[in-house]
Amino acid sequence: MAIDIGIREPAAKEPPKRYVSLDFARGIAIMLMVFVHIIHQCLYVDELMNNMELFNRQPLAALMVPVFIPFIGGLAGFFLLISATGNMLSMYRDLESGKSIRSLVFKQIFGGILLLIFAMLCEGVIGYHGLFGNFILNLNDPGATNTSLALWRWNLFETIHTIAWCIIINGCIQGLLSLRDRWRDKRKIIITYSILAVAIVALTYPVWLGVGSMFKSFYPFGVWSSYNPLDYPRIGQDSFGKILASFFLAPLASEIEPLFPYLVVSFIGSIIGIVLSKPKEEIKRTFPKQMLRIGGSMYGVGVAGIAVTLVLIMLRNAPTPADIDPMIAIGFYMSIIAHRSWTPQNIPFADSLGIEASTIPHFAWLAQFLAVTGMGIMLLMVLFRLVEFRGVSHKFARKTKIVRRFGTVAFTNYNNQWLYFIAWGIISLIFNGVWIEPQAWAGTALTMILAFAIFIFILWLWEKISYLGSLEWIIRSITNNALKIRRDRINANAHLRAPDPSELKSGSKARKIWLRIQGKAVDNELKWWQKGQIDVKNQFYNANWIDIVDEQEATTKADDTRIKLTDSKVSLVMGIIGLCTFFLFPCSIFGMIFGIKSRKTEGKNKQNTTGIILSAITFVYITALTIVLFIVKAGILGL
User: Fold this and answer.
1) CB 87 within 8 A of CB 170
2) Where are the domains of the chain?
3) Which residues contact 322 (CB under 8 A, 6 or more apart)?
């Protein structure tokens, strides 16, 4: 292994290569998160569930909220999948440019630790559920702000914590696998990550049981002396030993998104990243299809397991068939985001539902994990199949700017969800005359519209100064100045950020300062604080978008398996996915569009005919189901 920390980066001649599907998927993940959180917090769900008279007056469509929203909330691993894919692409870019393995591993560890620190700050202090977010919630009574959040919520192990740990662990694993130039054998590395993924799944339950057995009340479901849950020790009350122990125990067995089993998602993302790092001539044109099969199989098995789990819980907690209570299944299902709740060890949660913890099947967690992870894989692969494997990246990038902005500073948007508190407060003042109040459907919809309008406007405006002041800017400023491997890359690309000659006509000092604030490299030089800014011009607008298949090739050539990448085939695939997955029924719309389009360009054939038929079936049954659900009231269920 090389002793040096890095090789001087040659000057780049063109903007860096990017996959627009990853940028778009990142934006979709953030938008879905905001959508789910607004409904979860703003809608008067508790009143709906506890007031049976009000519940019975609701259309059955209202019951779709407890079905769709928790499942979408459980897709937090989708963001991890995207992150892991991008992270592996970055590591291979460094390896292929001659960076040493030591510098690569150091960059991963340093970056992961830094992200972990900011994840703790986000959850405990500056985030939407931290101290600052709680202050916004209590603007009508600032004295009611829960200042203790900063003392314990830092260890809430959610997606950002998971991503940070995965960056560290994946960096170390990739470093070991890359020794002696073995990183070039991508097939063996893919096999290794596949084996590791299976091993993590097999070890998950034993690890949970092992960690839990260390505590009388089973970690993380008991409490410390501070009466905080075991995974949330309180600074100033609990001992340093408890705080230190929880820092390492939470990644293993926390309630929300522990590394066991979510390292598997990171490994799957790494595999996707390795495949996408190959020269496009070496990437099999059937790769999306293969991954869709894997994701679809996981999703199918998972959904079946969830159904069996819910039925068993209802049956095991009913002394007689007449005592079967569907509300038990609904209550249990709504906890799908809390992954450890789907185990018999979470006795407090079971007690809150009025069920015996022992009636929760031991396989429930696996069904949940397979369903949400399989869905995430399918979502990502559908995007790649529709964009990069059809040669339309540039067209797609031009049409998706609003969505991609949400993903450009994804961590900042995650942190700044207190912005929807402001929208919620404004709507509450209009409808209820108070700052924050749960809303009915109309109020929730207006909150949603106003919140997204605020996000879109702020991101558009922030883009003008290259997101100066964002969390990404802070983290990038540290890493791009402290790490030679990152510093060399930034300096090598500085000329790409040079202002146009027309922008320097005045030549005044004030003009140059403004150009620097915009992220421009005046005199081909970047100040230290500019190195953290995002190069909007070359990473967002004029990026070197990658197409696996050229647009012309997608309709005229066949690969070695004699399967043409045609719009007819896309129509068929989208039709199947829309019909079979339920949660991805919008795919049938694309199936119909591509089917009709392909008939004009490719002629009528079995693929587009079948795709149109399947899409039509999905459209008809979803439309009919929607009409029925909005007409029929929940009271018909007799709950």
Assistant:
1) yes
2) 79-278, 289-388, 471-545, 567-637
3) none
Helix (H/G/I), strand (E/B), else coil: 241: helix
Q: 146 φ, ψ to 5°?
A: -85, 90
User: Worst-scoring range by mean pLDDT, 136-145, 303-312, 499-508, 608-617?
Assistant: 499-508
Place of tokens 């799957």: 268
In this structure, what DSSP letter does residue 310 have? H
**Left if phi > 0, otherwise alpha if psi is -120 to 50, otherwise beta: which for 539?**
alpha
Encoded tokens for 35:
């959508």
403-444 tens-digit pLDDT: 999 999 999 999 999 999 999 999 999 999 999 999 988 899
Sort residue 403 into left (φ over 0), alpha (ψ -120 to 50) or beta: alpha
By the 10 Å C-beta count (0-12 exposed, 13-18 middle, 19+ buried), 10 is classed as exposed
pLDDT band (50, 70, 90) for residue 1: very low
| Alpha-helix residue ranges (DSSP H) falling in 464-536 | 471-482, 484-492, 509-517, 536
52-65 pLDDT per residue, tens: 677 777 777 777 77
Largest CA distance in the chain: 85
Tokens found for residue 454? 């605020």
Number of CB atoms found within 10 A of residue 32's CB: 18
Q: Tell me how far apart the alpha carbons of residues 590 and 611 are, in angstroms, rounded to a whole number.
A: 10
Structure-token pair, residue 570 = 């896309």
Distance CA 357, CA 349 (A): 8
The tokens of 334 are what?
């709504």
- The alpha carbon torsion through 493, 496, 498, 503 (nearest 10 deg) reads -160
What is the SS3 assignment for 332-367? HHCCCCCHHHHCCCCHHHHHHHCCCHHHCCCCHHHH
Tokens for 219? 């970690």
For residue 403, what are the CA distances in angstroms to 73, 409, 448, 455, 461?
Answer: 19, 11, 16, 11, 15
Q: In sequence order, which residues have a C-beta less than 8 Å from that of residue 507 and are 6 or more positions away?
A: none
59 strand-pairing partners: 633
The residues near 4 (Cβ < 8 Å, ≥ 6 apart) are: 100, 103
DSSP state of 439: B
Residues 67 and 417: their CA atoms lie apart, in Å, by 23
Other Cβ atoms closer than 10 A to 464: 12
Amino acid at 42: C
